[in-house]
Amino acid sequence: MKIATFNINGIKARLPRLKEWLAETRPSVACLQEIKTQDDGFPAEEFTELGYSAIWHGQKSFNGVAMLVDTQAGLTICEVQRGLGVNGPNDGEGEQARYLEAEVNGIRIACLYLPNGNPHPGPKFDYKLRWMEALRARMATIWAEEVPAVVLGDFNVIPEDDDVWSVKAMADDALMQPESRAAYARLLGDGWCDALRTRNPRGGVWTYWDYQAGAWQRDHGFRIDHILLSPECADRLEAAGVDKAHRGREKASDHAPVWARLKA
Fold it and tell me: Could you give the maximum distance between any two Cα atoms of the chain, in Å?
């Protein structure tokens, strides 16, 4: 089973690139972030034509997560939970569309889009940390259920110095603050395995390149899209990687897809 995460940065704007990637790489499960559409605007029929079934949790103009499963490969999806019960940083805002959890052929899969947290310090950074606390609690609940599990998505955290092209350039960003890194490290300390780090222990692998300042052309990127595996799934990890070439295509997302392949 090949499980992937892809911050698509607007599903309608990137639909041709997304369908291209699905057709070329054929992931068993594709978790999407920043779909940036309300529920009734999600283009589910486009994926049905490709042999994928979808569930989604949308929001007008911002955020939003979705999961696609390859029905041609005999996969089925059953939603377990949406949201973590954490209200946004503004009073009266309510909860943002950032979390979607489902059962796919015996594997629990959680797709997330963690808050960015900028500007730091401030209420948006405080919201990021609250959200990470709620995520850790939910992951502990999943762990206690003793089911094989994969938690993946755009974590908006650069875990280590070798996960960024320039530590100095990102030093003041919320993605690299000690509190953000410590919250991510606690997830690993709880026993979850960082699939991409496991396969690339020396770092130097990016998943995001900004549209500004020629970041893609200069390879000024960093790693913020992660796949965390429960021990049972970690034992089945066969390979993990980044479909970097898709970032260089016309009208591409600023993220590249990240994937992990598990043995049967």
Answer: 47
The answer, as to whether pTM is greater than 0.90, is: yes
CB 38 within 8 A of CB 12: no
**Cα–Cα distance measured from residue 250 to residue 246, given in angstroms and rounded to the nearest whole number:** 9
Question: Do you find a cis peptide bond into 257, omega within 30 degrees of 0?
Answer: no
* Cβ atoms 193, 187 nearer than 8 A: no
Mind giving me the DSSP string for 5-47?
EEE-S-TTTTHHHHHHHHHHH--SEEEEE---S-GGG--HHHH
Per the CB < 8 A criterion, the answer to whether 117 and 126 are in contact is no
Which H helix or E strand runs over 193?
strand 193-194
N-term to C-term CA, the chain: 7
Cβ distance 220 to 209 under 8 Å? yes
**Residues 6+ positions from 13 with CB-CB distance below 8 Å:** 251
Residues 69-91: tens digit of each pLDDT: 999 999 999 999 999 999 999 98
Neighbours of 121 (CB within 10 A): 11
3-state secondary structure of 119: coil
Q: How far apart are CA 173 and CA 176, in angstroms?
A: 6
Distance, in Å, from the CA atom of 257 to the CA atom of 264, rounded to the nearest integer, reads: 22
- Residue 73's pLDDT is 97
Strand 149-154 with 107-113, pairing: parallel
- With H, G, I as helix, E, B as strand and everything else as coil, classify residue 3: strand
* 64-81-224-200 Cα dihedral, nearest 10 degrees: -140
Alpha helices in 84-172 (DSSP H): 123-144, 167-170
